[in-house]
Structure to design on (169 residues):
């Protein structure tokens, strides 16, 4: 019995240790605002999805699709972001989480950075449309949140995207 208890404690300690070793400080990049989440940044403890007590809206918008290895917003995708901007302008008090996603190709670290660039590109486009950057939070899911599970171009195309989560506090 003591052996099982010790084994359980060892497993818990190992999981905790592994959970913290993957975290490292991000290198600063020129031209990127350190507080990219604006008023909803780390000061309020947001880590991606809105916290408990925040009302996630059921309003859904079309995903913005990206080309392979790109964070450039294509002309064909701009209307999707403009629809989100119109909604935000018509609904004061609504906040936005823009999530960048990638397909499975590339390293996990590279895809996290690419997902971040995609989310930031959407944020920048929204700000260019007059949306206050303080209500837009960004998050990268890298390759960890696939929309499609295949291993071909049709699945990869669906996974190279930005998604919108709208919520109120």
């Amino acid at each position: 019995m003591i052996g099982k208890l010790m084994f359980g404690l060892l497993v818990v300690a190992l999981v905790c240790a592994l959970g913290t070793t993957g975290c490292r400080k991000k290198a600063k990049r020129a031209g990127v605002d350190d507080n990219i989440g604006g008023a909803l940044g780390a000061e309020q403890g947001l880590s991606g999805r809105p916290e408990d007590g925040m009302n996630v809206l059921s309003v859904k918008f079309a995903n913005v699709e990206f080309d392979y290895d790109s964070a450039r917003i294509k002309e064909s995708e701009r209307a999707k972001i403009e629809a989100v901007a119109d909604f935000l302008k018509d609904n004061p008090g609504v906040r936005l989480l823009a999530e960048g996603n990638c397909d499975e190709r590339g390293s996990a670290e590279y895809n996290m950075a690419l997902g971040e660039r995609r989310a930031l590109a959407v944020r920048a486009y929204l700000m260019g449309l007059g949306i206050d950057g303080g209500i837009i939070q960004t998050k990268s899911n890298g390759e960890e949140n696939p929309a499609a599970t295949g291993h071909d171009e049709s699945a990869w195309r669906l996974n190279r995207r930005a998604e919108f989560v709208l919520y109120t506090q």
The longest strand covers residues 161-168. The helical segments are 2-21, 78-90, 108-128, 153-159.
